[in-house]
Amino acid sequence: MGDGERERLGPGRALNLRRRATAMAGLRRFFDQRGFLEVETPLLVPSPGLELHLDAFPVPDASGQRYLITSPEYQMKRLLAARGEGMERIFQVCKCFRRGEAGAHHNPEFTMVEWYRSPGAWEEVARDVEALCCEVVKAVRGKGGPIEYQGRTLDLTPPWQWLSVAEAMERFAGVTVRGDEPAEVLAERGRAAGFAIPPTRTAWDDVFFSIFLDAVDPQLARGGPTILHSWPAPLSALARLDGEGFAERFEAYAGGLELANGYGELTDAAEQRRRCEAERAERLRRELPAYPLDERFLAALAEGIPPSGGVALGIDRLMMLACDAASLREVVSFTSAEV
């Protein structure tokens, strides 16, 4: 921008920023009414998470390598270990950072709300998600009931449709999935159902998403608000298993937007360490950055955390829904391309 050139948001974007302020007030009111404590945890951490899809921003520090958080999850779970000190229900609104994320639904810097119930189950936080989305959109639009989003009618009033991943894969792709089958077996099932899965895709997650993104994701976009639950164990590094081979993990979808990702939290320190080490080894195998294990997080699990449910929800995407916006650019002050 040259000297004297005036920054212009445009009336639509300026209106959406005012709507965003209304939404944030409603969000905090939602948690206050349910007895949640708002907390803050650091943005610079020694380990940003080891899941294969994460690509963190490194920040050299005098005390050693640090990373901008991809999620406040590890630090918030450490607070859950402080039993009897009022940390049983906590939430946080914060910035998170992930490299390589760009597009209408993505930005390398984004705003997240993350919360935990301890004790709690994934079903409870899934119902929180339904209620929160409904309340925030109602606060912005000034009315409840069905809304128009990008030319489609959506009703966010709870309860939403609940569908397991296995049901969705069977219904929309014609593929049976459990998570304990070898990748080559899942690939054979996919090819038999008509999916073009290259022989070079040998990792279980790559094979799964070759099918899921082609067949299931578009159907979720066409349907109503949905809680997609019981994910295969290989895709759920931080979630408890349900006793049937699936994980206590859910994702929330509405209007073609993936809004939230939640878990029945894994609290077994030994099992969590084993999974973290396996994820790190797989990152090395794929020549991805191999972030260190967060030993303080693992120590907190060893001290003991009650059965807990937690979830992270993308505020920017929820604002797209609330403002009938097609892109994140319409609901944030500046995208990464504008700074």
Task: Explain how this protein is built.
Helix content is 37%, strand content 20%. It is of the alpha+beta class. Helix 2 (73-80) runs parallel beside helix 8 (295-303) and helix 5 (183-192) crosses helix 6.
Give a short overview.
The chain has 339 residues and is an alpha+beta fold. It is 37% helix and 20% strand. The chain has an eight-stranded mixed β-sheet with strand order 1-5-6-13-12-11-10-9, with helices on both faces. Strands 2-4-3 form a three-stranded antiparallel β-sheet, with no helix packed on it. A two-stranded antiparallel sheet has the order 7-8.
Please give a handful of descriptors for the protein shown.
single chain; about 350 residues; alpha+beta; BirA Bifunctional Protein, domain 2; 3-stranded antiparallel beta sheet; 9 helices; about 35% helix; globular
